[in-house]
Design a protein that fits this description.
alpha/beta, single chain, 7-stranded mixed β-sheet, about 375 residues, about 15% strand
Length: about 375
């Protein structure tokens, strides 16, 4: 069975972790510092800390904003489930916003509607912007709302926008880094940014997260807070060593994802019945996933794929609305997509034979 998701752990990652184990330095230390330095070269942030979990990263980011108890924190219906628990344990109130119609990301209008709805009970003082499946909205319109944004680019590493027409979203564009001219990387716009290192994130380290700030003022706030964090929050060197290799190999992995996605897109176009997500102008996708919005029943597609020994899943099953934590009437656009969007396997170590098999499946979907 070809699984939907599989961490691309190769010999280099294994050797890196084994070296740390042999040196008996598995706790927080030099490897985490090396990871931060390498990430800075890619993302050009002012300051960063490496943490054991995105849960700790979100909790820390909310704490740094010093929000008044009972304030609203706006999050997408397609956010990870842990968001609710962290927000509530921080004595804040989650305010759920819908996606744009037919898209996995929100619009400024959908966020504004949620803010207006909750202004009496829980005035929104922060937006946590999670990029579901690696897709991101235009940032400027949301930033114009004037509310602090914590950006979660855990699945969007490598996605971004062409700046000033410098890139057209084709050719080598998905492999451009944040420091390349004309490419604005997701995760460079919020007050604080979370880059998860969990099993299903773009960069996988067996757990962990980077929390960073791009602006100097916000970087100073983050820097000053580090001394107060318990050492148990820090990323162990064993995980950091794996993440270093993943980050170094990111461009190669992105190139493979792009190659595989092109084959799948061709098959989907030939199939013609099921839809792909449209992308904002200038958006360059990292091909974190290959989703299709189905015109037929999800059960039929999953059963057909299983007969071909290929796993297919609901794309948003682990999100707030996919887990039943958000009602249909509150977020109708997200609810509709949660029932109809399937994801197919796409990860660097698939290999040509499996890619051909999946492309044929997509072309023959019921």
């Amino acid at each position: 069975m070809i699984e939907v998701c599989s961490p691309s752990i190769n010999r280099k990652e294994m050797d890196a972790v084994l070296t740390v184990l042999v040196e008996e330095k598995i706790g927080p230390g030099e490897q985490a510092e090396r990871l931060i330095q390498l990430a800075k070269e890619k993302l050009s942030f002012d300051f960063c800390t490496a943490l054991r979990s995105p849960v700790f990263a979100l909790k820390s980011a909310l704490s740094l904003l010093q929000l008044e108890q009972g304030s609203g924190v706006a999050v997408s219906a397609f956010s990870p489930r842990y968001y609710l628990k962290v927000i509530e344990e921080s004595f804040l109130k989650p305010v759920i916003f819908d996606t744009a119609h037919g898209e996995p990301f929100p619009s400024a209008e959908s966020i504004s509607a949620a803010i207006e709805r909750s202004k009496e009970e829980a005035p929104v003082r922060c937006i946590v912007l999670h990029h579901a499946l690696g897709y991101a909205p235009k940032f400027d319109d949301i930033e114009a709302l004037g509310i602090p944004i914590i950006e979660d680019c855990s699945t969007a590493f490598g996605s971004g926008f062409a700046a000033s027409g410098a890139l057209d979203g084709s050719a080598e564009a998905p492999n451009q880094s944040a420091t390349d001219a004309g490419f604005v990387h997701c995760g460079t716009g919020g007050i604080f940014t979370i880059l998860g290192l969990e099993e299903r994130d773009v960069l996988t380290a067996g757990g962990g997260a980077l929390l960073y700030a791009c602006a100097r003022r916000n970087g100073s706030v983050l820097r000053n807070s580090i001394s107060s964090l318990p050492p148990e929050y820090a990323l162990p060197d064993m995980n950091a060593a794996m993440a270093i290799v993943q980050l170094r190999e990111a461009e190669k992995s992105a190139a493979k994802r792009k190659e595989y996605a092109e084959a799948f897109i061709k098959s989907a176009m030939q199939q013609g019945r099921h839809l792909q997500f449209a992308q904002p102008d200038g958006f360059i996708y990292n091909n974190y996933a290959f989703p299709l919005v189905l015109e037929t029943g999800m059960k039929d597609v999953i059963a057909w794929a299983k007969r071909k020994e290929i796993a297919v899943e609901l794309a948003f099953s682990s999100t707030l609305i996919g887990s039943g934590l958000v009602t249909q009437d509150l977020c109708p656009n997200a609810y509709s997509l949660s029932l109809r969007t399937a994801i197919f396997p796409i990860y660097p170590r698939l290999g040509g034979a499996n890619v051909t098999k999946i492309a044929k499946l997509i072309q023959t979907l019921p």
